[in-house]
Design goal:
single chain; 183 residues; alpha/beta; Rossmann fold; seven-stranded mixed beta sheet; two-stranded antiparallel ribbon; globular; binds adenosine-5'-triphosphate; binds magnesium ion
Length: 183
């Protein structure tokens, strides 16, 4: 098997930036499972993802309510300090759903969140502790793994693992986006 696609992040800002890179290539109906220990940077990544989608509300961990939804307005444009700038998010994405499965106690709770319908209707769903919901999900998703490399500094290893043919076919796009981001 080939090496997983990955990148070292040396700060919370770099992790946010990488979240933004992923946001630039998602399609409606994409499921992103974020996997990594406590404090490894999952929420920070989602913050960067949401920022790149033009979401201006502060993104905080939905640990107790399980999931929070952020509708995207059309056209996907947002106001920055420098004026209006158009982001690169697929215009057909209707909303971003941020889930934290840490406190998940039963499958019914996940079913009740209605991700299947949301994905069908054009949402992109990001799930922290995504390994807990895998069994309930469809046939293709992207796993984003977060590892703390050295407890004494801020370095995290973030790697992307496509599951199912849809994401496997698209991994080259992500690779290209990450390489472009390095320049
Ligand atoms: N390279 C880095 N990437 C991400 N976060 C970093 C990095 N370096 C330091 N940090 C800090 O580590 C913390 C990561 O917290 P975050 O809430 O994103 O983690 P999490 O994986 O969502 O945790 P939890 O499992 O509790 O939900 C933040 O305080 C962030 O500022
Ligand atoms: Mg978190």
């Amino acid at each position: 098997m080939s090496q997983p696609l990955g990148k070292l992040s040396r700060s919370a800002d770099e992790t946010m930036q990488l979240g933004g890179v992923l946001a630039g290539i998602v399609n409606p109906g994409d499921l992103l499972l974020l996997i990594g220990e406590l404090g490894s940077g999952k929420t920070t990544f989602v913050k960067g993802f949401a920022k790149a989608c033009g979401i201006v509300q502060e993104v905080t961990s939905p640990t107790f309510i399980l999931a929070r939804s952020y509708p995207l307005s059309l056209p996907h444009q947002f106001s920055t300090g420098e004026g209006i700038s158009s982001n690169k998010i697929n215009f057909a994405v209707t909303k971003i759903i941020h889930c934290d499965a840490y406190r998940l106690e039963s499958w019914e709770e996940v079913v009740d969140l209605g991700f299947d319908e949301e994905l069908d209707e054009g949402a992109v769903v990001l799930v922290e502790w995504g390994e807990k919901v895998k069994q309930l999900m469809g046939s293709s998703w992207l796993e984003v793994h977060f590892e703390t490399v050295d407890m004494t500094d801020n370095t995290r290893k973030i790697s992307f693992l496509p599951v199912g043919s849809d994401w496997q076919k698209r991994l080259w796009l992500l690779k290209k986006a990450i390489l472009k981001d390095r320049q």
